[in-house]
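re: ur question from yesterday

yeah so i grabbed the chain u mentioned. its 488 aa long if i counted rite. heres the sequnce exactly as i have it in my notes:
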Amino acid sequence: MTLSTESDTGLPLDMTIFGGMGDLAMRKLLPALYMAYLHGNLPASTRIISTGRQEYDRHAYLAHVEAHSRSFIAEDNFNEKTWDGFLQLLEYVRLDVQQAPDFGALAAASRQGAQRVFYLSTAPSLFTTICEKLAAAGLVDANSRVVLEKPLGHDLASAVEINEAVGAHFQESQIYRIDHYLGKETVQNLMVLRFGNSILEPLWRAPNISSVQITVAEEVGVGSRAGFYDGTGAMRDMVQNHLLQLLCIVAMEPPTSLSPDAVRDEKLKVLRSLRRFTLADIARDTVRGQYTRGVSGNQEVPGYHEEKNVPPDSKTETFVALRTFIDTWRWSKVPFYLRTGKRMQRRSSKIVVEFTNPPFPLFPDAPGGVANRLVIELQPEEAIKLQLMAKQPGSGMQMQQVALNLDLQSAFQQRRAEAYERLLIDVVRGRLTHFMRRDELEAAWTWADPIIEGWGTLGEKPHAYAAGSWGPAESFALLARDGYSWVE
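ran it thru and got these structure tokens back, copy pasting raw so excuse formatting
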């Protein structure tokens, strides 16, 4: 395999993964880096250094990668010779992030003059310690970059603390706050859909749009993450980052260019325009849920309280639905409905833009409901569907809804990179557009914190919903009172 020399610095790459023995590294990061290597998208002389507390030599580490990472590479992308070449890039350094001397071993393994990328796939509480010790070991310079995995803080105060601590050693232009949803092809395509097609932009506003739905539904439960998840919940784990980022792309104004700051400036304006919730708003316009025992994938699965490491009296939400508004001229009085949950009926992420019905019912026999919708499917399949009304064949003027369907899988024959692969290549090439800026992160927490605090004040338990369902009944009532329903 011949590696590309393309990067914004032209330097060889040393990428260090803290938490390199963890689940994310094995399932996502190493397979993504393999794919980048396979397609010649890594700089020449790349090395990938994983750190962990295990007493492994390089041979034992490579055996661990074989056992825990190789299976996450699709068979049609796997090549034995290329895999062997990729393994030659891998190194292992035993490192306890609390022990300063261990960073000396990392410094010894790092090359002078290399472009250093530090991927912090650890608990956010360790970000400060890692950055301080990297700087003390002389590993941070003008060419260094740091990638921060979510969640970035537990609330606004902790997010500010992390930003200050990391910012003491890295410039903002060196910090990549990663949200893998921003690496999805369809999410990035949404920018082109909105700003590359003149047919849509005049309609992309009130009163032409009556509502917007954003759903990120997961079929899986909390599983092995229960210990972490119970202290986090769906609001912090999904809404504050993933769903708000999708909302920003849907609602932002056209940027002046595609430069990172131009795009992120417009996203920031959306976050600052989100209507703040009062306690009455929280009671009326938010729904928390928690899954109970049910059937998922034709198998009986435990409820949240039955998961390992979950306290029997936990009030942590595994589901959130809410209604919010963006107080701008473009979106005045247009409700945005956000929904996410675990153990839902199926895995599905989508954005649904509902357009206003015609002002006069010219066709009295038309079926009820919304005439026109734009449905943007993010997963499991990526597609864009425009739902229109058409005449049924035959006499009379009977109508039914039909879809103009852009199947992105069949429309483009070339390979579609996975989100982490695309974002890791962006890091290597210095592209910041699809990463959160500090003020974006803090604006998101400024909006989310009062909701979380309000739930604590109200003291209500999450509503129960059976695993394998679409969430608690109260989430359907949230839309029904406005005359809408969730689009499944």
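noticed a couple things. Residues 438-458 form the longest helix (21 residues). also The mean pLDDT is 90.
anyway ttyl
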